[in-house]
Predict the 3D structure of the following.
Amino acid sequence: MNQNLLKGILVLLVVVDHNEFSRSLFRGFLEGFSFHVVGFLMMPFLRPAAPWSRDYLNYLFRLYFPYLLVVTAMAVVVAWLEPVTAGEQTLRWIHVLYSGNSALLKQVTDMALLWFLPAFISLVTLRMAIENSGRTGKAIAIVLLCVAHLFVGTVAREFAPYLPLGLLPAVYVVPLAYLGVLLQRRIFERMAPLAALLVTGAIYVAVKHAQIRAGLYNEVGFGMVADYRAPGALLINDLEAVTGVLMLFQVARFRLGGLLELAGKYSLQVYLFHAFVALGVYKVLLRFAAGWPVAALFTVSLLATVLLTVPLARFLAEQPLTRRFLFPRSPADLIGRPPAGRSRAPVIPSTATQSDARQ
């Protein structure tokens, strides 16, 4: 499996989901659409978790530091543009640095999409804790998380702002990630790629059809998910997430490469900056092409966003100064201190810049 290709497809789907014109064309599809973010969150489970180490702490730093920078910059912009006092905005800024809550991020930065990075940190931490707790501890933890999965939708509004680093979405996704990777290893990776793609694709289409017909909504980042009170909706939404990811796992077994693989290699940078590029493209189209059909506006805006963002992401990731001060790999890298030694990262970097990895 080409994991850079997989990340590229996933981050492209993120761009589609955030496109200003997409919901005018695909509203029914996007209302319950979640497998793009669940796919990213499932990727660490494709490799064995390493023991606790400095590498783990450095990896979390690689994820949190860009989050800190973007949140801080956007909090300043929002404080300048909106009627909020400096003191109030400072308190809200501190809160979102702790919680990573989507609703608070929307208020503080106008970028709710940033929830993913703190949630990913929580998910990686949960996964490492589970895998390093012994066989019995792992079994107990997974059972408890499966039970918690049933109640996330009931407690999200009240508790999510007070939990650290997007913990609630991470708790929700962990059982789905274990299930998806188990099915991939036990069933689909043993099949020929084309056969596995046809089977997973057919299952996904059937599930998605049921979800659209039922008019189900699913927003993992905000915790707006079905729960035990609507077991049918919960089951369908969970199946949409898992089967969608399984379908993309099979796609990533083919040799596609090109722009998608490049987008995957720099997926963190694409994720963080595509919204700014997309906003600029949107403003230009509204000014010069407002009369175009929505389908044309969507196509042009999507292509322009991708074709502008991917080279920008590559530039920011490869230039020494921006790499050091925007995307440092460790605190030592940030301050310019040579590392004592480098060893392999303990988890799959589903958003971090990384060379091609195949399984």
